[in-house]
Automatic annotation (TrEMBL):
It holds the Pfam family TNP-like_RNaseH_N. Transmembrane segments: none annotated. It comes from Plakobranchus ocellatus. It comes from the Eukaryota. This is Transposable element p transposase.
Length: 209
């Protein structure tokens, strides 16, 4: 964490803007005693405390830096996207559902996504001197790609246990093994790691002197 803070302190205000992405992956319930760490592994672990419940999901948080390449059709302050989003909201308001109980959750999700995008773009354009916004940087593809790689470690494991998940997660991050499957349903991203194993070693050597 100290290394992360050090690297971020060297970035400009613009480069510090990023997207906080989080998601869950189902894992197999499994408890075992780790001789190396002298602890029982497999219960819900929130970092500062554990619960008495066996973990069946892994939650991962990822920071994705904003892109520096203005591709075609980027969302800008005066682009046609604003009119399109306005039409989408009007269409959603007039959408008729066969359900007499409530509006389908997906419709509420669309509305929330549109409102969030409008609020985020207004804040970035007015307060951070950002000229464009790439909406593809706001999805979870980068995180889903990591989950795909973790499931494919060693053998195809759609439901790894806690030990398998932790080991595959660390190996993926340290080795940068981000080669995704040809049958994935998420696009590859062009990100790079903010912290690498070489950077950690260099920082450790410098700190020890």
């Amino acid at each position: 964490m100290d290394l992360f803070k050090f690297i971020v302190s060297k970035l400009s205000d613009s480069d510090r803007l990023c997207t906080l992405i989080f998601g869950e992956m189902a894992i197999k319930e499994y408890v075992f005693y780790s001789v190396k760490d002298d602890e029982v592994v497999g219960y819900e672990d929130f970092g500062s405390f554990q619960t008495k419940f066996i973990a069946n999901h892994a939650t991962v948080f990822m920071l994705q830096k904003k892109s520096t390449k203005p591709y075609n059709h980027a969302f800008t302050k005066h682009s046609t996207h604003h009119a399109f989003l306005k039409d989408c909201k009007a269409w959603l308001d007039n959408l008729q559902s066969n359900s007499k109980i409530r509006t389908p959750p997906c419709v509420d999700g669309w509305r929330m996504s549109i409102w969030s995008l409008e609020a985020l773009s207004t804040d970035l354009f007015d307060n951070y001197a950002i000229n464009y916004l790439l909406t593809s940087r706001l999805n979870q593809d980068c995180l889903e790609n990591m989950f795909s790689i973790i499931r494919g470690k060693g053998v195809q494991r759609d439901n790894p246990n806690v030990v398998d998940f932790k080991g595959s997660f660390l190996q993926t991050v340290i080795d940068h093994l981000f080669v995704t499957s040809d049958r994935k349903n998420c696009e590859d991203d062009v990100d790079h790691f903010l912290i690498s194993l070489a950077t950690m070693r260099k920082h450790t050597d410098t700190s020890s002197h």
